[in-house]
Write a structure and sequence with these properties.
Largest sheet: 4 strands, parallel
Strand content: 5-15%
CATH architecture: 3-Layer(aba) Sandwich
Distance between the termini: 52 Å
Number of strands: 4
Shape: globular
Order of helices and strands: HEHEHEHHEHHHHHHH
Number of domains: 1
């Protein structure tokens, strides 16, 4: 059985276990969301829904999201979040790019769960193993999901799968970006390429880091350490003894 079919079966099993009717996901025009869209369609057919949620976004994002939807025959709904974002920013204290940028995926998560509750669907996140490992996601934003189909695949592995399933080249070759602010790219914010990151993650998993660039290795270790709170359960006070 090939990888996409194994992932299809896993998604179907998650839907059945949760007693849900289908899957929905954010369709951003990016590589990861395109692969999740394909897998969701494969798993649940017409009970897969892609929500296109532009929020101060590059118009190209919507264009590519629709390209993916057409290619894989996926139902979509577009909801413009610009006005909601603007109104919230007006009443919030002045903030930096990170605070404002993280508001976007948190707004999208709110919309995703509204529709998930309405249709009795599961929310499929689009995060991959590379990003999850170093905490490169917004807590309670794009990190808010019921299942993570790509959670076991490094970014370079997702890229390979995308080529195999026929994701358009324009999407595969496009610089990955969460669209948090104008000109933002994932690799620019992380500070290394996904290829470099994935090599370090693999080396750390195998405990074979000899010969690796020390600065890159320490950088990744620090990101893993500092983002631990994003991957663990919320700490709870144990109660009165």
């Amino acid at each position: 059985m090939n990888l996409s079919k194994e992932m299809r079966d896993w998604i179907k099993k998650q839907v059945e276990k949760a007693h849900k009717k289908g899957i929905l996901f954010g369709l951003s025009g990016g590589l990861d969301s395109a692969v999740v869209a394909y897998l969701a369609k494969l798993a649940v057919g017409d009970n897969a829904l892609g929500l296109i949620l532009p929020c101060k976004s590059d118009p190209k994002d919507v264009e590519l999201a629709l390209t993916v939807a057409e290619k894989f025959n996926i139902k979509t709904k577009e909801i413009q979040l610009d006005n909601i974002f603007d109104e919230l920013v007006k009443i919030y204290p002045e903030a930096n790019n990170l605070a404002k940028g993280n508001l976007k995926p948190r707004l999208r998560m709110t919309v995703l769960y509204y529709f998930a509750n309405t249709f009795d669907y599961l929310v499929a996140g689009t995060g991959n193993k590379s990003e999850i490992t170093i905490g490169y996601f917004t807590k309670y934003g794009d990190g808010g999901a019921d299942i993570l189909p790509l959670g076991g695949l490094l970014k370079t592995e997702v890229r390979k799968l995308a080529k195999e399933i026929g994701v358009p080249d324009e999407i595969i070759k496009r610089p990955p970006s969460a669209g948090l602010w104008h000109g933002q790219t994932d690799e620019g914010e992380i500070g290394i390429t996904y290829e470099e990151l994935d090599k370090v993650i693999k080396a750390l998993e195998k405990n074979k880091t000899e010969g690796m660039d020390k600065r890159t290795l320490q950088k990744v270790k620090k990101m893993i350490r500092n983002s631990e709170h994003k991957r663990t359960k919320i700490p709870m006070f144990g109660g009165v003894k």
